[in-house]
Amino acid sequence: MTPAIRSELLKFFSTRLWWGLLIPVAIAGALFSWLSATLFAGTEVQPGVRLPDLDDPQMVSSVYTAGLQVSQVLLLAIGVLTIGSEYRHKTITGTFLATPRRARVMVAKIISLLGIGAVYGFVGTFASFAVGATIIRSKGFDVLPDGALRTLGLSLLVLGLWALIGLGIGILIPNQVAALFVAIGAAWIIEPLLGLLFSSQEWGRSIAPYFPSNATQAVVNAVSQPGAEPRLSWWTGALVLAAYAVGMAGLGTWRTLRTDIS
Length: 262
Known about the structure:
With 262 residues, this protein is mainly alpha-helical. It is 73% helix and 2% strand.
């Protein structure tokens, strides 16, 4: 198993893709952390409704994870490309010839993606923490209130799970370009719109918290939008997001084990 995992990591880190996507993760983490801490914390978003200030632990968590939405879409794309590039460049045959047991290859891809997600999560979290903590400290507030360390740690897990969701999409839609369009479009456009639709309807308010993006926000304890319905606890959100990841990666693995590769 170790050689297979090493091979998957080598495939990824031997290209320029990894640092080409790592740079925007770091920039997004730093930029959105700065915006959240300087422009949004404590501001009035509606008449009589204010966002929490930086003395609120939940607002601090939001500052440290402000760039997570950008990072999760990029990790989703990495998950798609991990398998989609092999289908596109016809290297999937060589991969399965080198490691005839397909299940071992898929497990190696899953483990390597969790590791890649942790690396990207660390870089993005470090950038956001460096900027956010500097601003929070300058304003005289605690940089590590209750729950902040848990949020920073869970950010690494969240990105790995989004990469696994992308892996499943990349297998179910072998055309790499189509898979990327579907994955990014669903994560950035379709799912948020469906979330708003469900939240606005009485029958859908109990379902909306279980959408992947809403579960992600629950995991990292980010501030909810004013007027939003109560959301999941952090551990329930983690289980929901893990269920999406396991379901997509598991379905993709099952399809890979049963499909002829030419």
